[in-house]
Design goal:
mainly alpha; globular; vacuole; Glycerol uptake facilitator protein; transport; 255 residues; Tonoplast intrinsic protein; MIP_CS
């Protein structure tokens, strides 16, 4: 175990079986999450045929994201830590909870999972273009950016409190549920304004496959800023300094 807070990682770590399993787990979990989340959005678009889906549609989208993220985190929590989100991985990185090389592997896996899920959706829906995320009417780019920062801050803070904090105890059993419920609740809050991405991979896969890039930068800058702030605050303020920190947390027990 390294005694420092941060570690770059070793090249041979990238070929270690644990690293490979963790990376694969992130790919599969992100695929499941994006396929369900974006798939629900496409299903509603087909049902409503271009008309406004209204409050019931928003609730359906929120529930689909909450349930699928709950499952995605649960099935990967003991293997990779259940990030399922490049912003969560970044928050873990700035908090000294994962090596830089492992974070790169996670990011690649998460983005590929989102892209493959979006490709399968386009194939299975008879070439419907994924919708991705966009800013709602009357919402400025600055407003959407701050909204993504605030929402992702809350998400990563929740991840730290329930899945990473060494003092979490039995609360760790509820981590997937807490994370899924948080995302579902905040989609109800921010969905009408900017879609409430809180996840660059969730935004990137549909944007690439559907080729919809309008305001796309917001869904990278906002989540990474919010995640970085949450990671710094929780890791440096909330977690006692006497608790050792590891730099290659592939399972929750390593946090």
């Amino acid at each position: 175990m390294s005694t420092g807070r941060y570690a770059f990682g070793r090249a041979d770590d990238m070929t270690h079986p644990d690293s490979i399993r963790a990376t694969l787990a992130e790919f599969v979990s992100t695929f499941i999450f994006v396929f369900a989340g974006e798939g629900t959005t496409l299903a509603l678009a087909k049902m409503y045929s271009g008309s406004e889906m209204g409050a019931s549609g928003l609730v359906a989208v929120a529930l689909a994201h909450a349930f699928s993220l709950f499952v995605a985190v649960a099935i990967s929590l003991n293997i990779s830590g259940g990030h399922v989100n490049p912003a969560v991985t970044f928050g873990a990185l700035v908090g000294g909870r994962i090596t830089f090389l492992n974070s790169i592997m996670y990011w690649v896996a998460q983005l590929l999972g989102a892209i493959v899920a979006s490709l399968f959706l386009r194939l299975t829906t008879n070439d419907m273009r994924p919708t991705g995320f966009t800013i709602g009417p009357g919402i400025g780019q600055g407003h959407a950016l701050v909204l993504e920062v605030v929402m992702t801050f809350g998400l990563v803070y929740t991840v730290y409190a329930t899945a990473i904090d060494p003092k979490r105890g039995s609360l760790g059993m509820m981590a997937p549920l807490a994370i899924g419920l948080f995302v579902g609740a905040y989609i109800l809050t921010g969905g009408p304004f900017d879609g409430a991405a809180m996840n660059p991979a969730r935004a990137f896969g549909p944007a690439l496959v559907g080729w919809r890039w309008r305001h796309h930068w917001i869904y990278w800058v906002g989540p990474f800023l919010g995640a970085g702030i949450a990671g710094l605050i929780y890791s440096f303020v909330m977690i006692p300094t006497e608790i050792p920190r590891t730099h290659q947390p592939l399972t929750p027990e390593d946090y």
